[in-house]
Write a structure and sequence with these properties.
By secondary structure, the chain is of the alpha+beta class. It has two helices and four strands. The protein has helices at residues 16-28, 43-51; strands at 7-10, 34-38, 55-59, 66-70. Helix 2 (43-51) links the parallel strand 2 (34-38) and strand 3 (55-59).
């Protein structure tokens, strides 16, 4: 199972990309490296993501205005509440 951490932003127009990137960077303190968008996303959104230097993945089953961003970091395993801590 892919455990890459993704954050989703609502982007309807190309100019919304800068806002989404700013929010991502403010939250995680890093620049995203990849984006996932719908096959129905506006072409200007895809072009704006590529212009921002992101690797863009176009996938089916996504909401047209959702843009998923990641910096490639992996999710950390969480300790179960019902197991004893190791160590």
């Amino acid at each position: 199972m892919d455990k890459t951490v993704w954050r989703v932003y609502r982007v309807e127009r190309g100019e919304d990309i800068a806002k989404a990137l700013g929010l991502f960077e403010a939250r995680l303190k890093v620049h995203p490296t990849r984006a996932r968008v719908s096959t129905k996303a506006a072409p200007e959104v895809v072009q704006a993501l590529k212009a921002a230097g992101l690797e863009v993945e176009v996938a089916e089953g996504q909401i047209p205005w959702d843009v998923w961003l990641t910096d490639g970091r992996r999710a950390e395993e969480q300790m179960s509440l019902f197991e004893e801590a190791a160590g």
